[in-house]
Write a structure and sequence with these properties.
alpha/beta, 8-stranded parallel β-barrel, globular
């Protein structure tokens, strides 16, 4: 057992798997939340995507309520709510209800990206300029979530997000570029960088901007940052790399505009073009995959290099038991319990 140097959390994306219905992925997320709480993970976050054949969690606030009913300790959060689709007041109300269900355990992570294709995004909110008002939306959401009063003359003066309580959700800014980092710094909010989206590209610069420009807030006097990374551990490196084939195939197909559920490893291998083969080799080089010891070393190195004290782990695998085992092995590696 290693002395824990990092706080580990989970980001579960409810990934669809070939041969199983999409609704099964939602139930697997619920089971995984209970499993990860028992293992000692700090947070369990769920994502928001729309009309996506691979990632089927479309309503994180609903999923969070179900997780809250099945857990007692682990923090529960969205990673995130795609705020331009919605009215900030309604989001604040939803998360204040969640806070009432699980006091002191709710994280409200917000992002600007659509979480869908542009046509679907337009159906969610016909306003093509909604994302341009994202900073103002975040300010309004922050006020409603914390119970702050809007000034006289503001249209929202006297309007409150109910139910009120003794605690409030913790607001997080999510991002995979400098934009979110700088906005989080300006507002004095915790920041989560989506390493898994960029394969780490831009992470060092975004975190540097966040820390250099951070404006202390009452709730967060110092910067608080985390990375969301994709990692997979297994009992042997060979088993880990075998399971990795599902994600590698998904990535190569996505690059060709072919998005679908995760394939089992035995069906995932196909003939790759020279360019695809080169891309896969680069993926393998950067991947946090292997035995628990190997993945643990990579995670510690990454955290040390970027001065991070918490990582949120995403694990895709066709077999839910492979995912469960990966989280078990990492919990043992970092002595979470």
């Amino acid at each position: 057992m290693h002395t824990p140097q990092l706080r580990l959390s989970v980001l579960d994306q409810s990934a669809a798997a070939a041969g199983r219905s999409q609704d099964a992925a939602i139930r697997e997320t619920l089971d995984m939340a209970q499993h990860c709480e028992a293992l000692g993970y700090h947070r369990f976050w769920v994502s928001e995507h729309h009309s996506h054949p691979s990632i089927v969690g479309s309503a994180p606030e609903v999923l969070m309520a179900a997780i809250a009913a099945r857990t007692t300790r682990i923090r529960i959060g969205s990673a995130g709510v795609m705020l331009p689709h919605y009215a900030p007041l309604k989001v604040a109300e939803q998360f204040r209800v969640l806070e009432a269900l699980a006091p002191g355990r709710i994280d409200l992570g917000v992002g600007r990206a659509p979480g869908s294709d542009m046509r679907t995004s337009q159906l969610l909110n016909p306003d093509r300029h909604a994302s341009e008002r994202f900073p103002q939306q975040v300010l309004e959401l922050q006020a409603w979530v914390t119970g702050a009063e809007f000034p006289l003359g503001h249209p929202a003066h006297g309007v409150h997000a109910c139910p009120q309580g003794t605690s409030s959700p913790e607001l997080w800014m999510l991002g995979s570029s400098d934009y979110g980092a700088q906005l989080a710094a300006h507002l004095g909010l915790p920041y989560a960088f989506a390493w898994f989206i960029t394969d780490g590209e831009g992470a060092e610069q975004a975190l540097s901007l966040y820390r250099q420009n951070y404006r202390p807030s009452e709730k967060h006097p110092t910067p608080q940052a985390t990375l969301c990374v994709w990692a997979l551990a297994a009992d042997t490196p060979e088993l880990a790399w075998e399971a990795f084939e599902s994600r590698a195939r998904w990535r190569m197909d996505r690059n060709r505009g072919q998005i679908g559920p995760l394939l089992p490893p035995a069906m995932a291998v196909r003939e790759y073009s020279p360019a695809e083969q080169q891309a896969i080799e680069q993926m393998r080089h950067n991947a946090l995959v292997g035995s628990a010891t190997q993945v643990g070393e990579k995670l510690r190195h990454l955290a040390t290099e970027l001065q991070i004290d918490e990582l949120a782990i995403i694990t895709w695998a066709h077999d839910p038991q492979v995912r469960r085992r990966s989280y078990e092995l990492l919990a043992q590696e970092f002595a979470l319990t």
